[in-house]
Amino acid sequence: MTRHTIHPSQRSPGRHPHKKDAFIRRPSRLSRLWESQSTRHLQAALFSLSQLVKKPLTSSMICIVIAIALALPMGLYVLLENTKALSRHWDTNSPIMLYLKKHEIEQTARALSDEIAKRPEVQSVSYVSPEQGLSEFKKQSGLGELITTLPENPLPALLVVTPAPHWRTPESMMILLESLKILPQVEMAQLDVDWVKRLDAYLNLGQRVVYALSLLLGLGVIFIIGSIIHLVTQSHKEEIFIFQLVGANNAFIRRPFLYTGMWYGLLGSLLACILLSAFFYWLSEPSKLLGELYGDTLIIEGLGTGNVLSLLGIGMSLGILGSWVVLHKYLSSGPDS
């Protein structure tokens, strides 16, 4: 009798499953742990949110207080940034005035103007003759009849030097001023940047005030959320004690309370973003009218995406931090303390 042998590859896969395929289909320990932790965190987050929804009036009042505490420093910070941008724009409108010596003729003055205009740190140079200067002075001063009695024109020729865009900082403009002041044809050079320096000093002072106020109000948010979490833990003291008796660890007990603090911080920061957006929208029209009165465009920038994300992150972080501090002290000292 002839015996037929069957090759292993021809055997039924249902009767003899491949070991490698069985290993691939089996979920790994890391993936099971990730799914388990994700489910627990989602359950804790939804449970803590449902507890806030059950008390809408209390939760709304707490979120409003947090929103005001977060909106004040962020609003001042955005206003300071707008003021800095406006001051940088004003810097560009501060040209250098070069008053030439009286005996310099127009041809020499125009040659000097062309020479200065060739410098890389200079954008343009305008020549104002003594006659043009006297005419402008008559229009602006209202002393036309008195000026006509003068025996000669007392005004010198003037060169108005506009620095290049990359030379429009106060420090760079001062360097350019010193280099133009030493020219032999120049009697006097003038640049009005003192008010810009004073404005920068005020802005630096305001920035430090904003940082200090942010720190104080941030601590206030931590204390507010910490106090709320302390009251919540006291109302759930028996449940926490039972969880500890059955062997629940501190991480399991702490998780829903941390999410409660996170929700308070997130909702408070969202409300702060809404308040600040409404505030800057309210300021947009008056600022536009003010810019038109000065012959300029004055646009106040709002929060922006970066500031919104920062505010949301700060609110959530402060909420979690305030909850964690209270829970750490509570769980370390025991429920009866």
Please describe what this structure looks like:
This protein is 69% helix and 7% strand. It has a four-stranded antiparallel sheet with strand order 2-3-1-4. The chain has 337 residues and is of the alpha+beta class. The protein has two domains: 40-89 and 197-333, no CATH class; 95-191, Alpha-Beta Plaits. It contains eleven helices and four strands.
Features:
337 residues; disordered N terminus; Alpha-Beta Plaits; 7% strand; four-stranded antiparallel beta sheet
Write down the secondary-structure element order.
Answer: HHHEHEHHEHEHHHH
* Residues in helix, %: 55-70%
Oligomer: single chain
Gyration radius, rounded: 36 Å
Number of domains: 2
Number of helices: 11
Topology:
Blueprint: H1 19-25, H2 29-54, H3 56-91, E1 96-100, H4 106-117, E2 122-128, H5 130-141, H6 144-147, E3 158-163, H7 170-181, E4 186-190, H8 194-235, H9 237-245, H10 250-293, H11 304-333
Antiparallel strand pairs: 1-3, 1-4, 2-3
Short description:
This protein is α+β, with helices and mostly antiparallel strands and 337 residues long. Helices cover 69% and strands 7% of the residues.
